[in-house]
């Protein structure tokens, strides 16, 4: 029977009722906060296209980590910028690189904070691509794997809890897993950017990471936004190679992909609420066109509802305060 016997509004009648029957939760301990770490000391430089996000030297990154940990955020994702770039992205694996120093300093100050490191070469190469180039300007996939494995290993040696390869080279998860295991880091987990699309939503990040390609684009290794079955194949391959968790990036335009991955694979799924998604909301809120808090909470709840176990988001400190 339908109306008037069934009245669904009965279960929406008050905040207490709505809270009791709510199907999806959004809590601070599901959030991962990205940090951009740079060489130097006492550096805090705002990223113009990402209001509220800064480049921070190691000392000031530790300060920020303390702040977000006090808000209840239990994980950070570190991106690094080098002192100098070269064709191979050599500094990405340097023991004294900004990320490696930051890992050591943050784990020393906050041993209970989960420290995740991005593993890629684009911010470290003079050409801005995610791998080592051949003479004719193509990425040499197989030659890149050893370099990525060394980067991940340098992060693990510094104390990273998880490493997160974002390059989308074929076989990189297996190469990293072998390198970690052979060096005694069997407990270091791999969060794979298994499903990373060639998206228009990355623009502000490329400014923040100084990682825009000097020529061409990344469509030969990042995925076509039109594809879902390919995403499932990428996840299956990365899990076979040893990934412990998988990521879908971006999030908002790919909620169907998050759901497809969640339904198919019994592993934790992470969504990346990327820079363009963040900056669009910030710009609209500054114009008074949207209620920032309401929009952000609705968007992040949608990611959870789609199946994300955790969400990487630049909004994390604000969300922590809003959820109080």
From TrEMBL:
<dbReference type="InterPro" id="IPR030656">
    <property type="entry name" value="ALAD_AS"/>
</dbReference>
<comment type="function">
    <text>Catalyzes an early step in the biosynthesis of tetrapyrroles. Binds two molecules of 5-aminolevulinate per subunit, each at a distinct site, and catalyzes their condensation to form porphobilinogen.</text>
</comment>
<keyword id="KW-0456">Lyase</keyword>
<comment type="subunit">
    <text>Homooctamer.</text>
</comment>
<comment type="similarity">
    <text>Belongs to the ALAD family.</text>
</comment>
<comment type="pathway">
    <text>Porphyrin-containing compound metabolism; protoporphyrin-IX biosynthesis; coproporphyrinogen-III from 5-aminolevulinate: step 1/4.</text>
</comment>
<dbReference type="InterPro" id="IPR001731">
    <property type="entry name" value="ALAD"/>
</dbReference>
<dbReference type="GO" id="GO:0004655">
    <property type="term" value="F:porphobilinogen synthase activity"/>
</dbReference>
<dbReference type="Pfam" id="PF00490">
    <property type="entry name" value="ALAD"/>
</dbReference>
<keyword id="KW-0627">Porphyrin biosynthesis</keyword>
<keyword id="KW-0350">Heme biosynthesis</keyword>
<dbReference type="InterPro" id="IPR013785">
    <property type="entry name" value="Aldolase_TIM"/>
</dbReference>
<protein>
    <recommendedName>
        <fullName>Delta-aminolevulinic acid dehydratase</fullName>
        <ecNumber>4.2.1.24</ecNumber>
    </recommendedName>
</protein>
């Amino acid at each position: 029977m339908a109306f008037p016997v069934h009245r669904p509004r009965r279960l929406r009648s008050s905040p207490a009722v709505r809270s009791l029957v709510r199907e999806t939760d959004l809590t601070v301990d599901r959030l991962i906060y990205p940090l951009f770490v740079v060489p130097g000391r006492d550096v805090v430089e705002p990223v113009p296209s990402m209001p509220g996000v800064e480049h921070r030297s190691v000392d000031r990154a530790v300060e920020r980590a303390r702040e977000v940990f006090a808000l209840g955020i239990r994980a950070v994702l570190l991106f690094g910028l080098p002192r100098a770039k070269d064709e191979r992205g050599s500094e990405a694996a340097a023991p004294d690189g900004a990320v490696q120093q930051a890992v050591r300093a943050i784990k020393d100050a906050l041993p209970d904070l989960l420290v995740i490191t991005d593993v890629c070469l684009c911010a470290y190469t003079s050409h801005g691509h995610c791998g080592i180039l051949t003479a004719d300007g193509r990425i040499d996939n197989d030659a890149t794997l050893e370099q990525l494995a060394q980067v991940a290993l340098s992060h693990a040696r510094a104390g990273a809890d998880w490493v997160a390869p974002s390059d989308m080279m074929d076989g990189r998860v297996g190469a990293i897993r072998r390198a970690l295991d052979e060096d005694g880091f069997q407990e270091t987990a791999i969060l794979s950017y298994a499903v990373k699309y060639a998206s228009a939503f990355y623009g502000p990040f490329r400014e923040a990471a100084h990682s825009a390609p000097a020529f061409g684009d990344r469509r030969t290794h990042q995925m076509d936004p039109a594809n879902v079955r390919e995403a499932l194949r990428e996840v299956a391959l990365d899990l076979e190679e040893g990934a412990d968790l998988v990521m879908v990036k971006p999030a908002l335009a790919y909620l169907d992909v998050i759901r497809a991955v969640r339904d198919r694979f019994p592993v934790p799924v992470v969504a990346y609420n990327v820079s363009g998604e963040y900056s669009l909301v910030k710009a609209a809120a500054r114009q008074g066109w949207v209620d920032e808090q309401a929009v952000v909470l609705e968007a992040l709840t949608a990611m959870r509802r789609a199946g994300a176990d955790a969400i990487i988001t630049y909004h994390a400190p604000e969300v922590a305060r809003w959820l109080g």
